[in-house]
Amino acid sequence: MPKSDIEIAREATMQPIEEIAAKLDIPRAEILQYGPYKAKVSFDFINSLEGRPDGKLILVTAITPTPAGEGKTTTTVGLGDALNRIGKKAVMCLREPSLGPCFGVKGGAAGGGYAQVVPMEDINLHFTGDFHAIGTAHNLLSALVDNHIYWGNELGFDSRRVAWRRVVDMNDRALRSITNSLGGVANGYPREDGFDITVASEVMAIFCLSKDLADLEARLGNIVVGYTRERKPIHARELKAPGPMSVLLKDALAPNLVQTLENNPTFIHGGPFANIAHGCNSVIATRAGLKLADYVVTEAGFGADLGAEKFFDIKCRKAGLKPEAVVIVATVRALKMHGGVAKQDLGAENAEAVGKGCENLAKHIDNVKSFGVQTVVAINQFITDSKAELEAVRAATEDMGAKAVLCSHWSDGGAGCEDLARHVVDLVDNGQSNFAPLYPDDMPLWDKIKTVATKLYGARDISADKKVRQQLDDLQQGGFGHFPICMAKTQYSFSTDPNAKGAPSGHIVPIREVRVSAGAEFVVAITGEIMTMPGLPRVPAANSICLNDKGQIEGLF
User: Which long-range contacts (CB under 8 A, 24 or more apart) does 510-514 make?
Assistant: First the structure.
């Protein structure tokens, strides 16, 4: 029986974190250790890197996710290890896992098999406390809003139009809509409120898009927390919130350094969801990686229609980054599901279903190419994959003008990803990236949403009721029209129907709600039935997580 991820991670031979830092020429004095195997890198050191040339930026994304699994983070780690194995100086930049999915259905986000980052348990649980700091800063602002209203409401909040909700880093559907301040006069003025998951917080988005502490504080001040009866926006700076919020976030904003099972340096920092936020690790960590290594391998959440699009249109646009290549991860099992095979039947050979499922892969390849970036497909191999099924993937990929490379990093670590590493190096060193965002800044907000839906999702059009159209008009007139769009959409389909597999086309994308994230500098368009506070499944992963008789964690994956 193969070992579980946590068993493999527990058997890892980790090097002291100061030795990992030394591989990037980071002096021991410039790291703040959180135990022997994880540390934060000082801002003094990061600021000293200004002026150094940048390495090559490589994005790992994936086909539309299925219950069969794709292995995007695993492939990111495998590729990074493989680049180091073939003599390249490479670093990985990943997102921090959220506790919600860890105890829900998705599990952790530290890779898998022999392509993991460690210490796995720490990373998947409380890590260095960044999420606690982000959630606390967010909820401090929530408390300041209600406190201001309680003590006379000098700014004139319309309690029906308070836009700032609360957050908690757990899947808890019971908190989506609440009424606060009940219990009498001493507790304030009752109003409708609600919770989002911490990774959907605008503070998380700001944290990940800020270039330094000063930028962080300025962005926090720009948060729109509510409106007056005359619909004038009220900002966090009017509540004098940015100062104390920055105090809570100042240590967290320094990037976290850990290592892979093969002792290669990895930055794990920030973690906005990709289906309801922008799905990328912090700009600070990515920029630091580019100054410290020749190749930076990073990931963006879920499929390329969500994570990669937001990586390009939000993160790269705002941070001035230029990606050189994109790796799209696919598995034969997942492609079978997109070809109509039920999960319980995935063990049987079905090259025809794989070929049909490749319609999903082809759409993602086409989408990535529309940004002008070179693309390669990584086939994350399972032992059940047949020669005919693998050939179906190769043929479909070649028809799209890309190459498919077989990878066995889950079982073989970096050695199983060396072919992919060599191909990626050839692409970025000898090819040319003509990267450009999908739409210009000055395109109207409605047209930006429609462009993403029609060009990337294959939709015929978008729809919205009069209230949403008016909100977009108000945002356009209010000076937010130059912001990019952050689409909140199901990760399971190009459409808003999570059951529509493959590459559906001709559908309508309904826009249910829009929210301005003035500090993060994007407008969130919420589509279909997507929730900014997920719920737990009928049988959550939490049911299988426990401590054994040695006090070790079991069931975490």
Answer: 510/462, 510/463, 510/464, 511/449, 511/462, 511/463, 511/464, 511/468, 512/464, 512/468, 513/468, 514/445, 514/468, 514/471, 514/472, 514/475
Lowest-confidence pick of 304-308, 363-367, 516-520, 547-551: 547-551
Residues classed as catalytic: 72, 74, 95, 106, 274, 302, 382, 410
Structure tokens given for 272: 């906005």
Between the alpha carbon of residue 463 and those of residues 273, 294, 526, 527, the distances in Å are: 24, 45, 12, 10
Question: Does 436 map to a domain?
Answer: no
User: The whole model's pTM is what?
Assistant: 0.95
> What is the residue range of 164's domain?
131-249
Q: What percent of the chain has pLDDT over 90?
A: 88
Distance (Å, whole) CA 523 – CA 532: 14
> Residue 557 has what pLDDT?
79
Neighbour order of strands in the sheet with 224-228: 157-162, 224-228, 233-235
196-201 average pLDDT score: 95
Query: In this structure, what is the dihedral angle of CA atoms 167, 173, 176, 180, given to the nearest 10 degrees?
Result: -80
Split into its structural domains, the chain has a count of 3
Same domain (yes/no): 424, 299: yes
Q: What is the pLDDT of residue 274?
A: 87
Q: Do 141 and 113 belong to one domain?
A: no
The number of beta carbons lying within 10 Å of the beta carbon of residue 187 is 12
My answer on whether 68 and 156 are in the same domain is no
Could you tell me if 235 and 113 lie in one domain? no
- Whether 354 and 417 map to the same domain: the answer is yes
Torsion-angle region of 219 (φ positive above 0: left; ψ -120 to 50: alpha; else: beta): alpha
Cα–Cα distance measured from residue 367 to residue 371, given in angstroms and rounded to the nearest whole number: 7
What does the pLDDT average to over 116-136?
A: 95
Contact 451, 513 (CB under 8 A): no
Bridge partner list, 376 = 327, 403
